[in-house]
Amino acid sequence: MDSFLALIFLASIFSSWYFWRKKPNKRFLSGSIAVLILSFLLIGALPQKTEKTTTNQAKTSKSVKKERAKASSKRESEESAKAKSESEKEASLAKAKSESEARASSEASARKESEKQESERLASESLAKAASESSAKEASEQAASQAQAQSESQTIAQAPAQNNDNTGTAPTNPNPPVNNGDLNTADANAQGAIVGNSRSKIYHVPGQRGYRMNSENAVYFNSEAEAQAAGYRKSLR
Asked: Where does the record place Basic and acidic residues bias (predicted)?
């Protein structure tokens, strides 16, 4: 645009000179002068317009830059807030995970402690039960022993006195020995080393308290195996 106006300005100067000096013509001269003045005014006004346009462009550019800076700042702020939110979320998740692990560990410890206490309780109950059973068994054995001793004593007390010619009946021995009143299996009259009571089904060996007896229920055996085969058991005392 500037170049075109400058070209018109130069052309109007030349035409004004031409129609004034070379070929005078007032009509064309007036037109040339008018074009000259108009082009001059346009050329003078053009820089202002350009400057104004430049100013407007600068303002627009500044406004655009400001808007861009504002948008960039807003975007950075949003990104920062988002990053902060994500960081807080990760921290919250990490904290929740840590609390969950700690709670799981605490529950596992409590469960192990409970299982340990339960195991100790069961072991204690088992020991107490075993001790009780052992004590009951010992008491039962002691009661059985006392009952056996009492039965033997009653048998001895109730047995009538025997004459020297009386003999006991032994189902397992066809030749029973002579009962001399003071029975002793070690005597010459005894026919075996084991003496049993046919009523209590208990046999005695030499050295036991009930080995010596005076009873018509005395039965003799040559060995413990023979007595056990006949259904007798050994005396506990």
From this structure: 64-123
Question: What is d(CA 70, CA 124) in angstroms, rounded to the nearest whole number?
Answer: 79
Among all chains, which residue has been given the structure tokens 């109007």?
12
Q: Which two tokens stand for residue 13?
A: 């100067």
8, two tokens: 């018109």
β-bridge partners, 46: none
Global pTM value: 0.28
> Each residue's pLDDT tens digit in the chain (237 positions)?
667 777 888 887 888 788 787 778 778 878 878 888 887 887 777 665 556 667 777 778 788 888 888 898 888 989 989 999 898 999 989 999 989 899 998 899 899 998 999 989 998 888 888 887 877 777 777 777 666 666 665 554 444 333 333 333 334 444 444 344 445 444 434 555 788 888 889 998 888 887 876 667 788 899 999 999 999 999 887
Strand partners, 178: 167
Pairing of strands 202-204, 218-221: unpaired
Q: What is the 3-state secondary structure (H, E, C) of 3-35?
A: HHHHHHHHHHHHHHHHHHHHCCCHHHHHHHHHH
SS3 track for 84-128: HHHHHHHHHHHHHHHHHHHHHHHHHHHHHHHHHHHHHHHHHHHHH
Q: Which two tokens stand for residue 14?
A: 């030349």
Report helix angle 2-17 to 26-158, nearest 10: 180
- Domain residue spans of the chain: 2-76, 159-234
In the numeric block, which tokens belong to residue 103? 């709670």
